[in-house]
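Ligand: pyridoxal-5'-phosphate. Inputs:
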Amino acid sequence: MKVSENLAIIHDKIEKACARAGRKREEVQIIAVTKYVTIARAQEALDAGIRHLGENRDDSMLAKYEALGDKPVWHFIGTLQKKKVKNIIDKVSYIHSLDRLSLAEEIEKRAAKADLKIKCLIQVNVSGEESKHGIAPGETLEFVRSLKNFGHIEVVGLMTMAPLTHDEKIIRDTFRGLKQLKQQIESLGLEYAPCHELSMGMSNDYEIAVEEGATFVRIGTALVGNTLK
Ligand SMILES: *Cc1c(COP(=O)(O)O)cnc(C)c1O
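Predicted complex:
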């Protein structure tokens, strides 16, 4: 399928999910996750009208960045090792996987050096699965507070991944949990942590995520596919 055909279907589903939830369509942005696909396929996504690209590895992002440059808005969505931060810091607009203080320290250091302010989302392990990265919900507020003096990090929101299950209730509860946390942080009115973004929803569950308040959905397979062709 062409990306444009997939995108039309996804737009339609997002629009309907927004309508069901009484939300405005403009509140939801699509991040095309291109980690499994070629540069040409990522370019096809941009040609179809996509602005946001998401990658989960520094090498794969750098290869695409070399070809596509600053045209797209780059989102780093994967587990981030400290030693990789310097490779991506001047290329990404958003890091969705901030989940520990040592990583925040490295981002702060590298961003300060490059004179940049990086929009970060805190990855929260709402479902509590052991296999998942992210900070525990109960520790999230304290973690946000610990970022107060990091002048080159702006906490723009929260990110989570729902469990891989067909049980819609489990998925929905995960997204609701993230939204509640976001509202708590927002209500603190911290200048360095406006926390207005909710990054949640992938190919299998983005409609539920939109119903529950997602502002960024991260879609790979359903949009660009997942094979290197
Ligand atoms: C791969 C990935 C996605 C996209 O997954 P699909 O199921 O292919 O849509 C979204 N978020 C993260 C963090 C990912 O690693």
